[in-house]
């Protein structure tokens, strides 16, 4: 039997949702029938809106798609204006205040505390500069990711930016591909570092070369079925297909259609294409694609560049390869990558980012999959003045490794799936580690990813240290806790972290990391990296090296365990929640 979601989608879905969304916005939150809210909330996702967690009824998270992470001149300023005017809630975050922008691990933007009644004005503002929330969520083509400096990188093999943009133009709002069995994540990589992270996407176009008609042709090999969600991570698998940049949209559409027709619509857990790949295998997948969905002869795979990949590799020869810092572009100008700790930037700082990008560069901003931002097109003679800007004191192009390596998802602050608080906690972790832990000699990159649940939005399985939200008891009281995994990474030989320790109380995690790094330094062979050390160490031995321990670190959110309406409010019990509220933020009285 089709799932509830499939039934709801069969009634209203895709572009037609917008009309209903705008009607509800005009009439107010409380006009959505209570027994239809689950259906409408599921549909609203297609237009980039997620209803926030219990206790925050009538508030939404809004996701804005920025294909390949590109914000053209003027767009960043409008994002900041929208956040300033519409993304302020009834409570203040103790670290980030009230009003901020979240840069995401899929090169997108998220805003919080959005009111349904403000949606028409927000859409108008965004669309006036070419931005959209369309298909930022939902069972369709999500934001297309890739190398954040595509088209500017002096070392890229093939310019993937035109391909990513054509895919976006072709499939954004395309009715034939608007209702897939589940979300559809696409990566287009043209660089030699592999920073498009194709390994963890449903459809990955990865740089390759093939001799065709006696000429060396640059293009892409295709991989299918990667992903990190839940406890079923997969690396994308080679289907022995090479495409030229000109063929990429047609073949990508054919693969999307194959998924549309053959994905599992009876079981949402089993609906991702990685499970279809499990069932069919690469050979059958290619055969069906050729026989039923493509009307020309597919080329076999060419010579790929995976042996040169260094992005998030965790290997000694990988370098940073995260685009933070000052780097020369192919045209002789420079791009400057700024570290944004856990991806969150205040409204005023986002406005400053737009100003600085306009004053020193072309006004363009790029967003990376490590939740950072890049100012592009800076002439060499302006670099010194740019580095003197106050903005770069807080968002550094040369951050400490614990700052540089920190990623966190939304967490219980807003997310209904998350089990623990994440962003404030990872900021506190990074600051404590910076002050109290000395990294072993030569370790300049160290990635710690904190995900609030098994949905893996912070991509924990591909970090040196992976943290995943759980609960436990300490001294008889329920507290937030984290599973700890080790040794994940991508690069030439990608692999997922080994989960070696479970349910560590959150206040003992910094001590566990400190002890683990000390044990690594003591047992390290030569200049091997942490990932290499983990790879050669038995899993049981790794668990013994973690050693959770209380330290001077104190965690103010330990008690939360998702029993509160907002984890940072002075009175955070569910009874204290002001929600639901009217458009002006005043509470809506109960019918009782």
Automatic annotation (TrEMBL):
Start and end residues of each stretch annotated as Disordered: 569-592
Coiled-coil residue spans: none
UniProt keyword list: 4Fe-4S, Heme, Iron, Iron-sulfur, Metal-binding, Oxidoreductase
One Pfam family recorded for the sequence: NIR_SIR
Family annotation (PROSITE patterns): NIR_SIR (PS00365)
Highest rank taxon of the organism: Archaea
Residues annotated as domain Nitrite/Sulfite reductase ferredoxin-like: 54-90, 96-128, 327-389
Domain Nitrite/sulphite reductase 4Fe-4S per the UniProt entry, residue ranges: 137-293, 403-549
Single annotated GO MF: 4 iron, 4 sulfur cluster binding
Family membership noted in the UniProt record: Belongs to the nitrite and sulfite reductase 4Fe-4S domain family.
PANTHER family (UniProt xref): FERREDOXIN--NITRITE REDUCTASE, CHLOROPLASTIC
Name assigned to this protein: Sulfite reductase [ferredoxin]
Record organism: Haloferax massiliensis
Organism placement in taxonomy: Archaea, Methanobacteriati, Methanobacteriota, Stenosarchaea group, Halobacteria
Gene encoding the protein: sir_2
């Amino acid at each position: 039997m089709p799932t509830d979601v499939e039934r709801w989608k069969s009634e209203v879905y895709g572009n037609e949702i917008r009309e209903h969304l705008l009607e509800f916005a005009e009439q107010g939150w409380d006009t959505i029938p209570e027994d239809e809210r689950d259906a409408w909330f599921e549909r609203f996702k297609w237009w980039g809106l997620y209803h926030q967690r219990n206790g925050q009824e009538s508030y939404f998270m809004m996701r804005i798609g920025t294909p390949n992470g590109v914000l053209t001149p003027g767009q960043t300023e409008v994002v900041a204006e929208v956040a300033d005017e519409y993304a302020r809630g009834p409570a203040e975050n103790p670290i980030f205040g009230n009003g901020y922008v979240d840069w995401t691990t899929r090169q997108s933007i998220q805003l919080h505390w959005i009111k349904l009644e403000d949606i028409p004005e927000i859409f108008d503002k965004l669309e006036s500069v070419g931005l959209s929330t369309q298909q930022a969520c939902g069972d369709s083509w999500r934001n297309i990711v890739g190398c954040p400096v595509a088209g500017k990188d002096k070392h890229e093999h093939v310019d993937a930016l035109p391909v990513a943009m054509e895919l976006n133009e072709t499939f954004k709002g395309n009715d034939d591909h608007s209702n897939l069995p589940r979300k559809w994540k696409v990566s287009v990589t043209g660089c030699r570092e592999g920073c498009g992270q194709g390994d963890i996407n449903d459809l990955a176009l990865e740089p390759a070369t093939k001799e065709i008609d006696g000429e060396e042709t640059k293009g892409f090999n295709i991989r299918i079925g990667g992903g990190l969600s839940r406890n079923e991570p997969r690396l994308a698998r080679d289907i022995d297909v090479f495409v030229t940049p000109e063929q990429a949209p047609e073949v990508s559409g054919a693969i999307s259609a194959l998924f549309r027709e053959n994905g599992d619509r009876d079981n949402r857990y089993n609906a991702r294409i990685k499970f279809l790949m499990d069932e069919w295998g690469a050979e059958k997948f290619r055969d069906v694609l050729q026989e039923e969905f493509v009307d020309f002869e597919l080329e076999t795979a060419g010579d790929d560049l995976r042996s040169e990949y260094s992005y998030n590799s965790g290997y000694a020869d990988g370098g940073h390869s995260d685009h933070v810092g000052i780097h020369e572009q192919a045209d002789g100008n420079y791009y400057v990558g700024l570290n944004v700790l856990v991806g969150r930037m205040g409204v005023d700082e986002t406005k400053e980012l737009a100003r600085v990008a306009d004053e020193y560069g072309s006004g363009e901003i790029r967003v990376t999959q490590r939740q950072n931002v890049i100012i592009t097109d800076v002439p060499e003679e302006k670099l010194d003045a740019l580095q003197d800007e106050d903005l770069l004191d807080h968002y550094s192009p040369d951050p400490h490794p614990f700052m540089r390596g920190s990623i966190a998802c939304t967490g219980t602050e807003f997310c209904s799936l998350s089990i623990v608080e994440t962003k404030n906690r990872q900021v506190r972790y990074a600051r404590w580690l910076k002050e109290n832990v000395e990294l072993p000699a030569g370790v300049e990159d160290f990635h710690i990813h904190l995900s609030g649940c098994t949905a893996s939005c912070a991509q924990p399985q591909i970090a040196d240290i992976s943290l995943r939200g759980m609960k436990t008891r300490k001294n008889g009281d329920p507290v937030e806790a984290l599973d700890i995994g080790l040794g994940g990474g991508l690069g030439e030989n990608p692999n997922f972290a080994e989960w070696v320790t479970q349910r560590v109380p959150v206040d003992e995690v910094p001590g566990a990391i400190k002890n683990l790094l000390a044990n690594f330094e003591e047992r390290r062979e030569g200049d091997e990296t942490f990932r290499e050390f983990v790879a050669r160490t038995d899993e049981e031995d790794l668990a013994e090296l973690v050693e959770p321990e209380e330290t001077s670190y104190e965690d103010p959110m330990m008690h939360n365990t998702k029993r509160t309406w907002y984890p940072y409010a002075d009175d955070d019990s569910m009874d204290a929640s002001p929600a639901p509220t009217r458009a002006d933020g005043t509470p809506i009285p109960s019918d009782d």
